[in-house]
Amino acid sequence: MTVKDLLKKAWQWLLDQTDIDEMIEAEVEEVKKEYKETKAKIKEVKEEVEHRVERVREEVKDVVEAAQKVKSQIDDIKGAVKGEERKGRKPKKQSTSKSNLNTNKPAPKKPRAKKNS
């Protein structure tokens, strides 16, 4: 036996006496498991963020539309201050059709005539 063979046997014997290999393998398995869990959590967070971004886009769009309407109304106020005619739809005239007369409002009371005594 050479010194090299003797060292190999001694090294193998030393490795057999320790469970470092098993500990390393267990740690590798634990890291793989944590990696999968983390990957799943990242996917969930990504989906939630994408959903929130879409909702924010919708709300910003609504705010822009509302701001445009406000700007239009401000322009109308400026015109009113200058004395310009009102823009937009003309008010509807009240018609006396049957549908307008059939309301659930009580009829106005007629003033009573005073009795002469």
Helix content: over 70%
Can you tell me the residue ranges where pLDDT is under 50 for at least 5 consecutive residues?
A: none
How many individual helices?
Answer: 3
Mean pLDDT: 83
Q: What is Rg?
A: 43 Å
Main sheet makeup: none
Kindly estimate the percentage of residues that lie in beta strands according to DSSP.
under 5%
Q: Tell me, what's the shape? A: rod-shaped
Task: Quickly give the structural class.
Answer: mainly alpha
End-to-end separation in angstroms reads 152 Å
How many strand units? 0
- The helix-strand sequence is HHH
Concise structural overview:
By secondary structure, this protein is an all-alpha fold. The protein is 70% helix and 0% strand.
Spell out the key features of this protein.
mainly alpha; 117 residues
SSE layout and pairing:
Layout: H1 3-17, H2 20-82, H3 98-101
